[in-house]
Predict the 3D structure of the following.
Amino acid sequence: MSIRSWPRRIRDSVEQEGRLHAAWRLALSPAYRAGTLNVSRLYIRERKPSVPVTVRIATEDDLDALVALRPEYDHDTLRARMRGGHICVLSLVNGELASVRWACTGEAPLTDLGLVLPLEEGELSVYERFVHPAHRLKQVGTPARNALEEHFLEQGFRSIVGYATLGRRPYGREHPDSVATIRTLRLGPFRRFWVRTYGLDANHWRERLKELRCEGRECAPKQRRQAGWK
């Protein structure tokens, strides 16, 4: 059977990481996860949404709406993010929440992997970008993205560090913004992760990614030694 006849998500994953890694990820999910680290420049998009959109910064008064949009959220986690300086930009259509976009400075939370990467000066982390299914393909997130990036451009930020799960286009090893593939295996307290860098800045990111640590705590020295830097 041709790979072209497979479901798109599986096909994309196999094309981006190979059959062996894709099979391991499918068999060990959710303990085994993989994604790409992507670095792009900040700039203003010219595309406009197909419906009127209102943009504003979320406050703690919006916690109920955020949890309703994504049930995997919880009030305590979101409250801690806001009080820790993270920014959530909302796009609203007819007063209803259509999309969210989280951003922070200082460190990039790779939440799907349970890892954190310290950021350098001028780098911004944008994560957990989500659009309500009823509003997808309408560019409702573009005004929020532009407002967010314009705000940080004025403060001297120039690049965005992001993360995308393998199998989700457009990112993958062949994408020009992708600088590394990160894989993690989490079994109870055991943590192990592997990093493979590529592109013109491979050596730079190989050194940068040695600063990766487990979310919420430092990785133990034994776990750090087990990381496979390639």
